[in-house]
Amino acid sequence: MFEIRWHGRGGQGSFTGAKLLGVAASIYDQQYAQAFPSFGPERRGAPVLGFNRIDSKKITDRSEIDTCDYIVYLDDTLYDDVVLNDLKNNDAMILINTQKESWHDRIKCIDATQIALETLGLPIANTVMLGFLASFASNAVTKEACIEAIRSSMKPSQADKNIKAFEIAFDKGGNL
Amino acid sequence: MFEIRWHGRGGQGSFTGAKLLGVAASIYDQQYAQAFPSFGPERRGAPVLGFNRIDSKKITDRSEIDTCDYIVYLDDTLYDDVVLNDLKNNDAMILINTQKESWHDRIKCIDATQIALETLGLPIANTVMLGFLASFASNAVTKEACIEAIRSSMKPSQADKNIKAFEIAFDKGGNL
Amino acid sequence: MSRNAFLNGNEAVAYGVKLSRPNVVAAYPITPQTKAVEKISSFVQNGELDCEYMHVESEHSAMACSIGASSVGARTFTATSSQGLLYMAECLPYASGARLPIVMMNANRSLATPWNIYGDQMDTMFLLNSGWVQIFVEDAQEALDVTIQSFKLAEDVRVMAPVMVNLDGFVLTHTYEKVSIPSQEAVDQYLPPFKPSAHMMNDEEPMSMCITAGNQHNMEFKIKQHQELFNALHVFEEIDHSFNEKFGRSYGGVLEGYQNEDADYLLVTTGSVTGTARVVVDELRSKGVKAGIIKLRVVRPFPKEAMVRSVAGAKAIGIIDKNISFGYEGTIYTNVNSALLQRGLNLITLNFIGGIGGRDITKQNIEEMFEKLSTVSTSEAVDAVSYYNVRCSL
Amino acid sequence: MSRNAFLNGNEAVAYGVKLSRPNVVAAYPITPQTKAVEKISSFVQNGELDCEYMHVESEHSAMACSIGASSVGARTFTATSSQGLLYMAECLPYASGARLPIVMMNANRSLATPWNIYGDQMDTMFLLNSGWVQIFVEDAQEALDVTIQSFKLAEDVRVMAPVMVNLDGFVLTHTYEKVSIPSQEAVDQYLPPFKPSAHMMNDEEPMSMCITAGNQHNMEFKIKQHQELFNALHVFEEIDHSFNEKFGRSYGGVLEGYQNEDADYLLVTTGSVTGTARVVVDELRSKGVKAGIIKLRVVRPFPKEAMVRSVAGAKAIGIIDKNISFGYEGTIYTNVNSALLQRGLNLITLNFIGGIGGRDITKQNIEEMFEKLSTVSTSEAVDAVSYYNVRCSL
Amino acid sequence: MSQPVKINARTITKDEYFYGHKACGGCGESLALRLALKVIGEDAYLSLPAGCMAAVSFIYPNMAFKQNAIITPFASTAAVATGVAAGLKALNKNKLSVGFAGDGGTADIGIQALSGAIDRGEKFIYICTDNEAYMNTGIQKSGLTPFGASTTTTPAGKVIRGNVKPKKNMFEIVAAHGIAYAATASVGYLEDFMMKVQKAKEANGPAYIHVFSPCPTGWGHESDKTIEIAKEVVDNGLWYLAEFENGKFKLNKTPKLDSDVRLYLNAQSRFKHLTDDDIREIEALREEKWERLIKEWS
Amino acid sequence: MSQPVKINARTITKDEYFYGHKACGGCGESLALRLALKVIGEDAYLSLPAGCMAAVSFIYPNMAFKQNAIITPFASTAAVATGVAAGLKALNKNKLSVGFAGDGGTADIGIQALSGAIDRGEKFIYICTDNEAYMNTGIQKSGLTPFGASTTTTPAGKVIRGNVKPKKNMFEIVAAHGIAYAATASVGYLEDFMMKVQKAKEANGPAYIHVFSPCPTGWGHESDKTIEIAKEVVDNGLWYLAEFENGKFKLNKTPKLDSDVRLYLNAQSRFKHLTDDDIREIEALREEKWERLIKEWS
Amino acid sequence: MKDFKRVPVPTLERLDQYPLGSSCKSFHITDMNAGWRVFKPVIDKDKCVACYRCYLVCPDGAIHQSEDGKFEIDYDYCKGCGICANECKVKVIEMVKEAK
Amino acid sequence: MKDFKRVPVPTLERLDQYPLGSSCKSFHITDMNAGWRVFKPVIDKDKCVACYRCYLVCPDGAIHQSEDGKFEIDYDYCKGCGICANECKVKVIEMVKEAK
Ligand SMILES: Cc1ncc(C[n+]2csc(CCOP(=O)(O)OP(=O)(O)O)c2C)c(N)n1
Ligand SMILES: Cc1ncc(C[n+]2csc(CCOP(=O)(O)OP(=O)(O)O)c2C)c(N)n1
Ligand code: SF4
Ligand code: SF4
Ligand code: SF4
Ligand code: SF4
Ligand code: SF4
Ligand code: SF4
Ligand SMILES: [Mg+2]
Ligand SMILES: [Mg+2]
Q1: Residues 6 or more apart from A80 whose CB is under 8 A from it?
Q2: Rounded to whole angstroms, how far apart are CA atoms F283 and C287?
Q3: For residue range D68-118, what is the model confidence (pLDDT) as tens digits?
Q4: Among C373, D46, E100, E201, which is most exposed with the fewest C-beta within 10 angstroms?
Q5: Helix, strand, or coil here: D295?
Q6: Is the shortest distance between the CB of C30 and ligand 1 below 6 Å?
Q7: pTM of the model
Q8: By residue range, what is the domain housing residue D287?
């Protein structure tokens, strides 16, 4: 079972990232997945969370996710070093959208906003971060499934651009 | 325990009669009494019932009253011979406001409307029937208590007339 | 000095309210509660009671106005019944969560559909989870006394919870009997003006009320409310004592046992049917049958310990329910059974459902119940739930 | 042909509704139900579902409109949650007394005050006396399937009662998972259009509905409703079978036992917590602990016989309540205890209260519950009610 | 709109659709219902909330309506009626849904459902039978109880003498919703009332009629004076006959504003405590109202 | 009424009474609240129903109001507010009770309590912050959602494209109650709004203000355009500034009725699906409305 | 013309004889209201001018026109309110005291 | 002028430390909103003409006039909506991208 947490800000599409991952794993990889948001009274701009569980067996666990295999940040201003404690094991890692270089061996960095701006023309980095994640989490989800998930969730013109963004990030991750 | 039923028509004041009797027995005779109406969706003009229980001991029974010591009719058009079956014992009796003569040994008749018109100027016969009842039911309530009850429940001018009406009927009953 | 008057249950409550000097009354008319609010408004229009009487446009607003008034520390009363009680349902846990000491009279009446204005207890039983203290009274005197006591109970710092006083529709609300009305001075001594609690809105330290508590905090708020509601049990016992000292009337606290000490067969009753059952128990006792009654006065908080203690010696208990939880059984039956199971009491309990939609429960019915209890104690092959005074074959 | 989709519980219900082809949908938005009605309205605005969608101004009207629509024989759906459910409370026994086969989704959510939008089951438990069939589902697939089944159940001539489908707020309503969506053809075969019942208003023989039945008749109407509601138990079992035959999914009827056959320690669960408990039971079983689950699917009518049968062999049972009846205990606990007492089952039962106001119930919590059950079976000195995942000392 | 047939006692159906009910003798509401139903016809589906008319007409096993009819929750006349309409529409039945409610059920507890139903814009008719108090429960003040009237919750007491609030203006509130058709009426002018019901039937959307309906029991007048009183109140201008159509108001009848309101008030015991000052206030309110009405609506 | 002080940014108190709330950046409602409270003052008792403003301001343990404040049941703003007023009065406290509710909480589920409260006639202020949908629950259609707008329950679908119903006329509905003071306002004209709040404060009975309050999240406009949009909607006549005082209506501002409504509509994604026909319909509705307003109110 | 027949009170000996739900056939009239009257209206048919007024104004619909054009009262349902008598312009309806 | 002090989050170790009822002191501000911003407004104080406009229009009340008459932003509570910058007639407020 893989457990993943997404950090973003209301309006940034982090939960869409989690949903795409869920679609990829469950519908196109024929596995099982959950995707669920955190939800609070704070409004657009406030920090929000999204979660995934992925497994080859049916998932019935409905409790909250504490420790994770992957933690994804769509916005580096949200990051705080204490989350390193939330990682499950030695393979687990944190993926951050930032212009900075990694400052910890469990942290992988990518300037996803830049990639998004270049490929989509918008600073919406969720598909980029999905690509980056997929490059590491190959046991959890396949690249192909992610691409199918993106394709099935958007208008074709949008999908093409997002798949491109996804692939750039996927390759970046593979080369780290 | 005395159990009494009043028959009238919505608007004729039969339940006021029952209340006066209750006040008399419980407040002025220092006994215990209940007075309760029947209540239905039918409107003014429709037949209604009122009930009394009177006892020297505290009354806790809350069930309906089936058989009675006295049954009082404020309007003879409501009377039907089957109610003879609702009388408790040989002392029990039915008191009817009517111009007719009694047609049964358990039935006592009085032209209460006539008395009311003469004394009150109105065809409201409840205090008359109370007087008639009190003349028979001396074990249940005293004449004095009834008079006090009437006095305490009305404006003095009204009370005087009603007491007069009461007394005429009380005397009529005593002379039967 | 107290004085006697011939009052029905509605009027008795109205006198209890008047003597308690509420600051605000907000109520909406509904049969069979109307005479209570009519009497109160006549007190107000006659200048005998100095309070804000709000002619609201619905029961939801009756309770919402009560919440508003109580939240600034005003002593607040309202009254309703049946459809009205359910129409304000949303506001009931609202008020109890806010710990507002509102007192409400409920005239127990059947729920539509079919429509019916007569008394049964389905309305109140619908609301057992509302966080309100729920008290049932047996006669007009108890209605008056408990109304006064309810303000004291609701406003006690250990309780600080809304209280519902339940009167059986018609059988209590419309039946006149002799009632002793205490003097205003005595009640003023017994129930001084309410000193608003610090959690209410006030000028000195402004408060935010009926706030949000997310999943980080909510559970603790609710457990606190739950645990403190239990205080109503012993505070009500205290109040029963202090009221008795002052006014010379005691009702036995959260429940009253009648001939229960040595009873083999016990009936658990709520409200007015208790009185009828007393008559039957007296008769049975005179015939040597060891029958008794547990009159359950407080249904929430549920007096589990007192109940278990009072019935422990019996051979069989019958629970009279003037309600049905559709698709299960009478609600008080369920509640009592749970208490017994938890204490490992191996008692036989039977559910006697009657009085639905105003159907009479006769003395003969109650005799039959005791009869059934005495047979079941030797045979187990009976149906747990039975109905009384049904007019057709089932 | 069915197809897989990644849906949350709200959307799953919306698909279930669409496939059931209701004639009228009347609903009012409230978190966490909104996505269900939004999805349904998008089906309507896109022409994918041909029905009258009523934008009502409140939940009381949502249910009143549903009553109106259903009373002329229209297949009718509505959805609500929490405050909304209580705001329509008056209309619930109204509809059930009228025997209207309305289907309603309820997103289980905490009740104010304090306000809280997260899931617990206090809202539904408030309404156990409403005469509605109350079903809890565990995941999005079950939510979709039970929505379709609910129309079949509600409209069955033996039942003819409104049905409430309960989904834990957020945990089910907002969690996406893989769901198989049946084809419209298959559902059309399984659930043909509703043939209005003769007791509804119609052109051939005009009817008067929601009438008055005085104290002469009312009790019999209510007993009839009560007795016939019990039919929902076996009809739901039938439906579970026929659905399984058609769609290949069964959920076990009124309750599902999981590892319960030989279990020493059983947990009674409702809704989503069942899934988490399954994980724990699997673990415990792998360690040799005989743990099991009774997933209570239908809470009204209460499956007394099935419950008693399923737990009879256990040493101790724990009942998880995501609700508190303030001043007593968890409501399901009360209900289960009553069943056990009536059957003379001398079992130890404990009440595990958790998940209030959206508080997580963790796997460790559930382990602790089983742990507690295994100790209590040898010792009686425990408190019957305990709370899980509380963030302060009590 | 089709060419209007003159509607009167001779042209309406001879069939009765409301019979054997248990209303008080001389009940104005029951007369309004009886005649409205004759205009509306046998096919309509009726919704009535709790209130006198429902209470006296659905007493199992004695059903007084010929049409399909349903009692609604007290707050829900318009919601149930539009639910019925939606159901009928969805089932492709071209029938009319009609709600009848009292003043309390309309102006107080039912106003939200009514407002929502009008706002949804689907066709139905709503008729408010206004007897100026909660009669079914025993004459309590409603939002439509007029200034001065004594009711059981606004008795003529020692410090407050009767109801101190004026009547809520339901007709204009409804009109402000931009309703397709609205009208006021009185059982004192029955042909006018029936004509308005006919217009409501033909309206292209929600329609509302507010009909003044004396209640001998609640108002304390002789049961044979119902019509007289309902006519007098229009003639003296304490009530008015008006319509709202195509977004415009229209007055149907000009009263005698100098007439003595005592003729009306003294016939009813609910006004018997009024002082000369109170009566002057009532006359002042009348004057104020008509000044505005005449200016704005004629 | 006392001599009105000119109310503007310089004369209002510098104290903040609404701070640290969790509304979206650029939220029009929160601006309306903030400024209204500065006029109303520190002493008032506030009642807010469920809705964005309550949701973002009472999140334990973070309380954003300085005043006494209570969240009310969603349907109950005016009932709780008048209950508060009655309680304060009974306790001899001379304080002001003020209700704030959204469009949904006012025109839909709260209209009954509001109607009842106005009818009771006791002094309190009610401010409706109108963002034209149920925002707190995620942008569902309310009775005040304008024609054409796409919401989550009236999405721009294939057969029904957005909301097909016009906006309910709350201002006139409230005025028809004969309220002491009512006004419309917009956060595009803040001084006007504050002046009206001051008038409401001085009114001799219930007062109602309906303030147009853009919602960047729900309307899909940039968060910095809130005021611009709220000004444009007044300037182009799709919304209006008016008052109802002493029983009379008064227009405060005449719009440019020939202006292009696209400037307003195109700034918001909720209107992006509108066709030219839709826009013509919106313009036609504007024309129709103003014809009446100018005729009747000026 | 009253197109209904009074029907007998239903037999209710078993639960299944009770209605399903809270429903009943419409116009299911089992009852009379005759007993409500204290006075009863009597039309002097000879003087009646058949103006329809009494028929129109009766809240109980208890007056109908018979074959011969004259107006008749259904005393099973007339409550004796007196409106017809009061409204008859030619004053040919008299209210007479009921007697048993 | 903001006359409040941010208060610490209350200690909640025992049930009796929780509020009675669903109440809390008003203006009990425990939180900041700084983290919500993506852009932050920066006032060029030298060019500011102290017109009060930005202060008036800020939905968060995050702008106040300081002693020297100039306008200042409380960045603990500014959400970066940009209204102030958009409404400043002399355009002296600039929105600058936040950086961690
Ligand atoms: C929710 C609810 N509250 C109160 C009642 C009680 N009730 C029934 S009818 C009625 C009065 C009806 O008054 P109105 O609408 O004016 O009709 P009328 O009886 O005068 O014809 C009341 C208060 C109820 N049935 N339901
Ligand atoms: C009885 C009830 N029904 C539904 C809700 C859910 N609800 C809470 S706020 C809200 C929408 C509020 O909309 P509006 O009044 O316009 O205020 P806004 O959020 O737009 O400021 C809804 C539907 C509720 N809290 N209570
Ligand atoms: S009380 Fe009035 S409205 Fe009700 S039935 Fe009698 S006369 Fe008609
Ligand atoms: S959603 Fe709209 S109304 Fe709600 S806080 Fe955000 S901007 Fe304000
Ligand atoms: S007396 Fe009344 S009920 Fe009888 S016929 Fe005349 S109008 Fe009708
Ligand atoms: S009102 Fe008189 S004249 Fe006219 S039909 Fe009736 S009885 Fe004849
Ligand atoms: S950016 Fe927005 S929140 Fe920040 S100071 Fe400017 S107006 Fe206020
Ligand atoms: S709006 Fe601009 S000029 Fe005016 S005070 Fe603010 S920064 Fe200064
Ligand atoms: Mg009325
Ligand atoms: Mg809104």
Answers
A1: none
A2: 90
A3: 999 999 999 999 999 999 999 999 999 999 999 999 999 999 999 999 999
A4: D46
A5: strand
A6: yes
A7: 0.98
A8: 255-387
